[in-house]
Q: What sequence folds into this?
């Protein structure tokens, strides 16, 4: 099954750029990447720029409404994601626990929809 | 072989009932592990049972009824999966089913119930759903029985169970015994679920049509048999036996709940106590301590002769705090310290927990008891009144009312109001 690991965290508690903690976090990501690649489970993943760069759009009554800001104003923001292909939830949770943000933010683990690729 | 005919039809129905009662959990576990879908496993097993009624009625009982049901259920699953749209998961399930069909020892049904239990008690499910699903699939309880045990409406509980089954399939919760890395955490979820079943039955009493204490004991013994020599499983089983041994004595003749130290020891179940102690000492000798072993030892010390061994209980709560540093464990530790001879220190600890536990009725009951022990009768009276007003059962309320009445009669040294 493919799972998306959605990385949520509060920018206020995230280690600041240039501090030793920031280096430790980046090292943690590098180690997690290496492990997922070595295990052959990594299907993709990206980091996102901050929510202050987000633009939201919706169409209501045929009219496009464009807004400055993220979809929802929350303390914890979506900061990036991984997609892993693993046998089950337990395996997906093991990879989620490798992500350094799990120590101060939250990793949401969700199965990808199966669009029936074989049929 | 049974002869067809009306008498045969009754025999067939009885035989099917018996197989479904004795072997349903096993059959479901094997099917679910192969299909990775509990809902589908239940459906095809039910369809196989319907087929059995007509087939067995015509051709007589098969030699191995459970093996027959498993084989037919597998074929029905294969038909369904072939008919449905294909994806990777279904293809995998089909391959597993085909391999099982071809297996040489088709009659020996492996016991996969531990895998089923770990799936039903997965931490990705809500605790209440874990309980309901385990009772439904492993113990074979009906939805109405489970709903009654939790004072839920039947449709509500039915929805909860089907949502949980759907979630297992959709989220990809495996039917697998976890590896060493995850073992301790996942086992704790399983043992806690079974213990929750036990306490639900313990509070409700043995008069329900399906006694949940018995179901919990069945589950714990099954887990111990399928995974022998694990000290925490043994500890949980010992704790259940030692606590269950006091069941007939926990309510006094006037309907008041009694702590172990005030119970009629003649009503304790000696055989259960002996078995619990034997299992606990076997667990402790393995030298891998854990919270369930400590809780079992506390239950044991509550029954020391001639009175609870409070200094030892206080020491054990101190050890438990290292595993479970929670406010509730701290509260129990404080009560034990007070009972062991230092009420002032116990009360000081209880006072520090007031903010964390202000909505927790046992805190008010313990606070009242410790205020009384330290001579603050006015404070004790107010705390007892609050504890009585929020008591979870009439038996608890009655116990506390008796304590409150006793306060006016002069100084005494009350025991804690609830079991540890």
A:
């Amino acid at each position: 099954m493919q799972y998306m690991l959605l990385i949520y965290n509060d920018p206020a508690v995230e280690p600041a750029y240039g501090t030793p903690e920031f280096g430790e976090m980046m090292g943690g990501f590098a180690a997690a990447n290496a492990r997922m690649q070595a295990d052959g489970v990594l299907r993709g993943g990206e980091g996102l720029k901050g929510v202050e760069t987000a633009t939201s759009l919706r169409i209501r009554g045929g009219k496009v409404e464009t807004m400055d800001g993220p979809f929802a104003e929350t303390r914890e923001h979506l900061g990036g994601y991984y997609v892993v292909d693993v046998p089950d939830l337990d395996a997906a949770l093991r990879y989620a626990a490798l992500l350094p943000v799990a120590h101060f933010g939250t990793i949401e683990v969700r199965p990808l929809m199966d669009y029936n690729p074989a049929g | 072989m049974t002869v067809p005919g009306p008498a045969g039809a009754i025999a067939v129905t009885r035989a099917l009932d018996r197989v479904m009662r004795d072997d349903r959990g096993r059959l479901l576990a094997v099917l679910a592990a192969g299909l990775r879908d509990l809902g589908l496993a239940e459906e095809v097993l039910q369809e196989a049972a319907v087929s059995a009624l007509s087939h067995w009625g015509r051709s007589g009982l098969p030699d191995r009824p459970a093996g027959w049901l498993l084989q037919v259920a597998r074929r029905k699953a294969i038909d369904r999966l072939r008919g449905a749209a294909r994806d990777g998961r279904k293809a995998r399930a089909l391959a597993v089913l085909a391999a099982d069909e071809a297996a040489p020892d088709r009659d020996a049904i492996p016991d996969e119930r531990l895998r089923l239990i770990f799936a039903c008690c997965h931490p990705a499910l809500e605790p209440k759903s874990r309980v309901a699903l385990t009772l439904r699939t492993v113990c074979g309880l009906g939805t109405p029985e489970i709903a009654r045990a939790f004072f839920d409406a039947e449709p509500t509980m039915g929805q909860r169970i089907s949502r949980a089954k759907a979630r297992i399939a959709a989220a990809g919760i495996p039917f697998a015994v976890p590896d060493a890395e995850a073992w301790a955490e996942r086992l704790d979820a399983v043992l806690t679920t079974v213990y929750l079943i036990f306490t639900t039955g313990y509070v409700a009493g043995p008069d329900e049509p399906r006694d949940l204490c018995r179901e919990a004991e069945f589950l714990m013994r099954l887990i111990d048999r399928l995974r022998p020599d694990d000290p925490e499983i043994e500890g949980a089983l010992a704790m259940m036996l030692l606590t269950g041994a006091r069941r007939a004595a926990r309510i006094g003749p006037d309907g008041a709940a009694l702590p172990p130290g005030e119970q009629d020891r003649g009503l304790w179940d000696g055989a259960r106590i002996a078995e619990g102690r034997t299992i606990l000492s076997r667990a402790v000798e393995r030298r891998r301590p854990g919270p369930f072993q400590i809780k079992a030892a506390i239950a044991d010390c509550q029954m020391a002769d001639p009175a609870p061994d409070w200094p030892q209980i206080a020491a054990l709560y101190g050890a438990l705090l290292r595993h479970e540093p929670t406010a509730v464990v701290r509260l129990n530790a404080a009560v034990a310290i007070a009972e062991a001879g230092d009420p002032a220190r116990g009360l000081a600890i209880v006072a520090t927990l007031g903010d964390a536990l202000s909505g927790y009725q046992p805190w008010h009951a313990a606070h009242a008891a410790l205020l009384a022990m330290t001579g603050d009768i006015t404070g004790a009276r107010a705390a007892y009144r609050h504890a009585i007003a929020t008591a979870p059962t009439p038996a608890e309320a009655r116990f506390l009312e008796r304590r409150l009445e006793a306060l006016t009669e002069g100084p005494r040294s009350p025991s804690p109001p609830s079991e540890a």
The domain at 2-111 of chain A is CATH 3.30.70.1060 (Alpha-Beta Plaits).
